[in-house]
């Protein structure tokens, strides 16, 4: 597809990097000459210098024949105008990054009037990610599939879990309702087979329906009680959306914010949170608010350093859950080594949502790709496909399809039935199929198999 990315910041660059690897023709538009030079030197993309709201710039970038235009600048209004102009020129599909809660309240009207096909809100996406993590305090990451019916939970294997050193074929007998789908061991991302043995320290993904996943972790002795009270450091957009997301779920929130004006605004708009005007990095303040008695400490200021230091303080106190927001994507990999497993990034959340949307539009004749999730520091991916009639892999037992190396069929959803697939199971037209694979190995469902028969 011909794709135009307007805005060459962290989000725009990440999108261009992944989409160019997917084989799409990418054009980046930005006013910053230095940013464009970096993209031109390091990525297989075309670069156009100028404003995404300027018709001449969009025409030069090829908006008249573009399949997708992604407006990902830091300016909401610029993104909206860019999408409107691109659609008028002939672009088929437009995606706008819009952050301000004031616009969020009237998104349906905005999308209709400005002809924007999809709106991405980085802070709201991050808040949803945090709310999922609050269900499993021990989890590093939680992803959902099949409209929330299937969950994939990442956690670090401990000695007390008693699942290490046992071949997965035996573990499947012990835990038949979940699938062990991906492992990060050191720097290696592994897609396990039946002979694979888990080791203490592995970062492991377990997949199943909500009830089965919760039951599995209870059997391991993990803490499956969701977070009931949390203290949030920073009163920005993520805190606002998180409070809105968990409203009515019985979760009590305290939000600590330095700016008095922000505190007043939050107090007026949120009924389910206690707003505290103060410095959330001040240990005396945290101690006076009995931070160690809270189930979770969630650090959401605009400064990575403050979030990291406060998060490490929470780890030192032994809090059940510590979540840290990071803006610099290059620092995310090393933070886990410091004892903080749960790291969120609005920029990365935005890139991931847009990637899923674009990849879903580039489906093949025999399958539709609904979602793509990067896993294990982007070294593996999880895919959600819908199988369409006519594919050569339908109705053939999986053990005769010959999965390609490094690919695992994790789950099949057929109507109301959720199937943990074994060799005798098969895929039918209309099934939702969830795969895990090494990053970059799958673009459509047929890529998973070496089909030898019709």
Can you describe what's shown?
The protein has 454 residues and is an alpha/beta fold. The protein folds into 4 domains: 2-120, Rossmann fold; 131-220, Alpha-Beta Plaits (2-Layer Sandwich), CATH 3.30.70; 228-319, NAD(P)-binding Rossmann-like Domain (Rossmann fold, 3-Layer(aba) Sandwich); 364-448, Regulator of K+ conductance, C-terminal domain (Alpha-Beta Plaits), CATH 3.30.70. 33% of the residues lie in helices and 26% in strands. It has 16 helices and 22 strands. It has helices spanning 10-21, 33-42, 55-61, 76-89, 101-104, 107-114, 122-133, 168-174, 210-220, 237-246, 260-269, 283-288, 304-317, 332-335, 346-361, 398-401; strands at residues 2-6, 25-30, 46-49, 68-71, 93-97, 118-120, 141-145, 150-156, 179-185, 188-190, 203-209, 229-233, 252-257, 273-277, 296-299, 321-325, 342-344, 367-375, 380-387, 407-414, 417-419, 432-438. Strands 3-2-1-4-5-6 form a 6-stranded parallel sheet, with helices on both faces. Strands 14-13-12-15-16-17 form a 6-stranded parallel sheet, sandwiched between helices. Helix 1 packs parallel to helix 15 (346-361) and helix 7 crosses helix 10 (237-246). The radius of gyration is 23 Å and the shape is globular. The two termini are 30 Å apart. The model has no long low-confidence stretch (mean pLDDT 89).
């Amino acid at each position: 597809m011909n794709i135009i990315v307007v805005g060459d910041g962290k989000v725009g660059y990440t999108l261009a990097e992944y989409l160019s690897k997917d084989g799409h023709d990418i054009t980046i538009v930005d006013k910053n000459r230095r940013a464009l030079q970096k993209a031109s030197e390091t990525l297989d993309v075309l670069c156009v210098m100028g404003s995404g709201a300027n018709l001449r710039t969009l025409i030069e970038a090829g908006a008249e024949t573009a399949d997708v235009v992604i407006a990902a600048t830091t300016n909401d209004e610029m993104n909206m105008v860019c999408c409107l102009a691109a659609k008028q020129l002939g672009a088929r599909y437009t995606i706008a990054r819009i952050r301000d809660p004031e616009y969020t309240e009237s998104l349906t009207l905005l999308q209709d009037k400005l002809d924007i096909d999809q709106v991405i809100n980085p802070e709201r996406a991050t808040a949803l990610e945090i709310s999922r993590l609050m269900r499993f305090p021990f989890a590093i990451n939680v992803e959902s599939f099949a409209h929330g019916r299937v969950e994939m939970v990442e956690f670090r294997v401990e000695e007390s879990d008693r699942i290490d050193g046992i071949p997965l074929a035996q573990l499947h007998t012990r835990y038949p309702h979940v699938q062990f789908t991906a492992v990060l061991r050191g720097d290696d991302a592994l897609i396990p087979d039946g002979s694979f043995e888990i080791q203490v320290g592995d970062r492991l993904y377990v997949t199943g329906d909500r009830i089965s996943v919760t039951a599995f972790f209870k059997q391991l002795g993990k803490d499956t009680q969701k977070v009931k009270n949390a203290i949030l450091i920073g009163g920005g957009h993520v805190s606002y959306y998180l409070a809105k997301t968990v409203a009515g779920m019985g979760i009590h929130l305290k939000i600590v914010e330095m700016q008095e004006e922000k505190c007043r605004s939050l107090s007026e708009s949120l009924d389910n949170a206690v707003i505290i005007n103060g410095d959330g990095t001040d240990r005396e303040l945290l101690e006076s608010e009995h931070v160690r008695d809270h189930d979770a400490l969630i650090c959401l200021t605009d400064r990575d350093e403050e979030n990291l230091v406060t998060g490490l303080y929470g780890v030192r106190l032994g809090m059940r859950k510590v979540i840290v927001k990071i803006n610099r994507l290059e620092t995310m990999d090393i933070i886990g080594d410091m004892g903080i497993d749960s790291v969120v990034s609005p920029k990365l959340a935005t890139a991931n949502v847009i990637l899923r949307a674009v990849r879903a539009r580039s489906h093949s004749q025999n399958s539709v790709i609904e979602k793509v999730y990067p896993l294990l520091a982007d070294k593996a991916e999880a895919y959600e496909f819908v199988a369409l009639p006519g594919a050569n892999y339908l109705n053939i037992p999986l053990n005769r399809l010959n999965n390609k190396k490094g690919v695992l069929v994790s789950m099949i959803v057929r109507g109301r039935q959720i199937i943990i697939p074994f060799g005798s199971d098969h895929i039918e037209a209309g099934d939702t199929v969830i795969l895990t694979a090494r990053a970059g190995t799958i673009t459509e469902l047929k890529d998973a198999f070496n089909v030898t028969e019709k």
